Amino acid sequence: MMRVDIWSDIVCPFCYLGKRNFEIALAQFEHRDEVEVRWHSFELDQNAREDNALPLAERIAAKYSLNLEESIATQEGIAERAQEVGLDFNWRNAKYGNSFDAHRIIHHATAQGKAAEAQEAFKKAYFTQGRSIEKHESIRKIAAEIGLDSRQVDEILAADHYAEDVRADERVAQELGITSVPFFLVEAQWVINGAQPPAAILEGLNRVWAETHKP
User: Fold this and answer.
1) Burial class (CB in 10 A: 0-12, 13-18, 19+), 126
2) CA angle, corner 177, sides to 174 and 180, nearest 5?
3) Backbone angles phi, psi at 186, to 5 degrees
4) In whole angstroms, what is the distance from residue 85 CA to residue 104 CA?
5) What's the pLDDT tens digit per position in 154-179?
6) Which pairs with CB-CB distance under 8 Å and at least 24 residues apart come from 175-182?
7) For the CA atoms of the chain, what is the radius of gyration?
8) Which residues form the DSBA-like thioredoxin domain (predicted)?
């Protein structure tokens, strides 16, 4: 077996790209059936709020000291990269918001064996469908679409279930010095950082396999 831990945020475009690139690489990996993938929470902005959020281009411009034209060009560039791997990045419709509660539901989905489905559903909701990933009504609908029990989801959102799991992921990220995502940690030693192309990820997987499975 070979374990891959992935830290990711729902509102991170490179995390959606990285997820898809990883899936493409994994499909080509000879030992893919022996890879265990574990997803971990990471919040780029723990203070984010949907109700007072600037449009995405303006927010990116302010955060990275860009003018609006540069910010728009950056988003269009990401959209082109996304399209190359079959993703629709409708950044103009994105409802930037706080991802903490969505991360809690993803932990619940993981406990139900639906980690990958939840990661895909929430990222697609945000980047492609322009849906809220903060408001509970929207989170409930997204969760229901991947078959999670609505009553259990309501109970989680109404309390603090899985909050410690999210914070534990973030503490480990801090201990590892992770400042940007996606962050792939293979066999607890080898790092693949960022939305690397599928070929680069595949090369990394092959290299680690060869190193850890010597005759």
Assistant:
1) buried
2) 90
3) -100, 125
4) 28
5) 999 999 999 999 999 999 999 999 99
6) 178/7, 178/42, 181/7, 181/8, 181/9, 181/12, 181/14, 181/15, 181/18, 181/42, 181/44, 182/6, 182/7, 182/8, 182/12, 182/14, 182/15, 182/18, 182/19, 182/22
7) 17
8) 3-203
Which CATH number, 3.40.50.150, 3.20.20.70, 3.40.30.10, 3.40.50.2300, labels domain 1-211? Answer: 3.40.30.10
- Residue 157's CB is within 10 A of a number of other CB atoms, namely 19
* DSSP state for residue 107 in the 8-state scheme: H
The DSSP bridge pattern shows strands 190-193 and 2-8 to be unpaired
Residue partners of 26: CB distance under 8 A and separation at least 6 = 32, 35, 37, 201, 205
Distance (Å, whole) CA 18 – CA 200 = 11
Residue 38, strand partner residues: 5
pTM of the model: 0.95
* Residue 65: strand, helix, or coil: coil
Spatial neighbors of 8 by CB under 8 A, at least 6 apart, are 15, 18, 19, 39, 40, 41, 42, 119, 181, 182, 183
Residue 152's identity, in one-letter code, is Q
